[in-house]
Design brief:
The protein is an alpha/beta fold and 265 residues long. It contains eight helices and seven strands, in the order βαβαβαβαβαβαααβ. The protein is 48% helix and 15% strand. Helix 6 packs across helix 7 (213-221). The chain binds nicotinamide-adenine-dinucleotide. Residues 16-17, 19-23, 41-43, 67-70, 95-98, 118, 145, 147, 190, 192-193, 195-198 line the site of nicotinamide-adenine-dinucleotide.
C-alpha cells in the first residue's frame, strides 16, 4: 500500500445492483481486500446468496440489503441499516442499472422514465443518503457506474445514453460540493462486459437492426475495440478498487474508460 492509497480493510461500502454482474464483482474485490460490503439490490434473495458466498471467501464480510434504488424510503432505510450495523459509510458504488432499447420514436414513455429513474434517481438518492455520513467523518468515495455511453452514443439507446451522460454531471457537482469535506466522486465507463444485461441485448439488437446475433457482437458491440475483446467484470472491479482506495481529492470529478480502446480520450 502506498501513501496515495488507503487500506480497504474494515472500510464500509455499499454497492447497489451487486447481486449480479459488475456490481457483484466489485463487492467481491472489496471483500477480498478486507472491506465490509452491503450488497444492495432489488433482488433480495440473490443479494443474500451473494453476501453469503463472499463472506465465506473473506477476509472481509458482506450482507444483503433489500433496496429499490428508485424509492427514497427504501434507499434511506437501507443506508440506515448499514450505518446501524457497521457505524458509517466510506464508499458508495451506485451501480444498479438496466438497459432498454428502442428507436426513439418507438420508445414508450414509461420505459424511458423507468430507465432514467433507476440510473439517475438511484445515483441521486443513494448519494444524498450517504453524503452526511461521509462529511461527518471528513472522507468518502462515491463511484457511479457510467459507460462508454457516458461519452458516446449508439442507435436505440436514447434513454441509456442520456442517463449515462447525466452521471458525469452529477459526479462533478458532488466533487465540487464535497471537496472541502473529503467527499470524492468519480465515474467508471466500461465498454461491453458479458453480464446478464448484455446477454439480453444481443437478440434484441439483432431483431431491431435486422442482423445476426454474431454480427451484433463482432460489429456493433466490439467492432470499435482494438482487439474485439469484451471488457471483464474483473477489469471494472479493479478500477472501482482504485477509486475507493485513493486517499485524496487529487482524483475526483474524473471518469475512467475501461473498454479495450473502444473509446479513447
Ligand atoms: P446486471 O443485469 O448483471 O446487474 C444489474 C443489477 O441491478 C441486478 O442485480 C438487478 O437486480 C439490479 N437492479 C436493477 N434494478 C434495480 C433497482 N431498481 N434497485 C436496485 N437494484 C436494481 O447488469 P450489469 O451489466 O452488471 O450492469 C451493472 C451496471 O453497469 C449498470 O449500471 C450498467 O448500465 C453498467 N454497465 C454495464 C455494461 C455491460 O456491458 N454489462 C457496460 C457499461 C456499463
Amino acid at each position: 500500500m502506498t501513501d496515495v492509497l488507503q487500506d480497504m480493510k474494515g472500510k464500509i461500502c455499499i454497492v447497489t445492483g451487486a447481486a449480479s454482474g459488475i456490481g457483484k464483482a466489485i463487492a467481491a474485490r472489496y471483500v477480498a481486500s478486507g472491506a465490509k460490503v452491503a450488497i444492495a439490490d432489488i433482488a433480495l434473495d440473490k443479494a443474500e446468496a451473494a453476501a453469503k458466498e463472499l463472506t465465506d471467501q473473506g477476509p472481509g464480510e458482506a450482507m444483503g440489503i433489500d433496496m429499490d434504488v428508485t424509492s427514497e424510503e427504501a434507499v434511506n432505510s437501507g443506508v440506515a441499516k448499514v450505518v446501524d450495523t457497521w457505524g458509517t459509510v466510506d464508499v458508495l458504488v451506485s451501480n444498479a442499472g438496466v438497459q432498454i432499447v428502442h428507436k426513439l420514436e418507438d420508445f414508450p414513455f414509461d420505459e424511458w422514465k423507468k430507465l432514467l429513474s433507476i440510473h439517475l434517481d438511484g445515483a441521486f438518492l443513494t448519494s444524498k443518503a450517504v453524503i452526511p455520513h461521509m462529511k461527518k467523518q471528513g472522507s468518502g468515495s462515491i463511484i457511479f457506474m457510467g459507460s462508454v455511453h457516458s461519452k458516446e452514443a449508439s442507435p436505440l439507446k436514447s434513454a441509456y445514453v442520456t442517463a449515462k451522460h447525466g452521471l458525469l454531471g452529477l459526479a462533478r457537482v458532488i466533487s465540487k460540493e464535497g471537496g472541502k469535506d473529503g467527499v470524492r466522486a468519480n465515474v467508471i465507463c466500461p465498454g461491453f462486459v458479458k453480464t446478464p444485461l448484455v446477454e439480453k441485448q444481443i437478440p434484441e439488437q439483432a431483431k431491431d437492426l435486422g442482423i445476426s446475433e454474431e454480427e451484433v457482437v463482432s460489429d456493433v458491440m466490439l467492432g470499435e475495440t482494438v482487439d474485439t475483446e469484451f471488457t471483464t467484470v474483473e477489469d471494472v472491479a479493479e478500477i472501482a478498487h482504485l477509486f475507493a482506495s485513493f486517499k485524496t481529492n487529487a482524483l475526483t470529478g474524473q471518469s475512467v474508460v475501461v473498454s479495450h480502446g473502444w473509446y479513447m480520450n
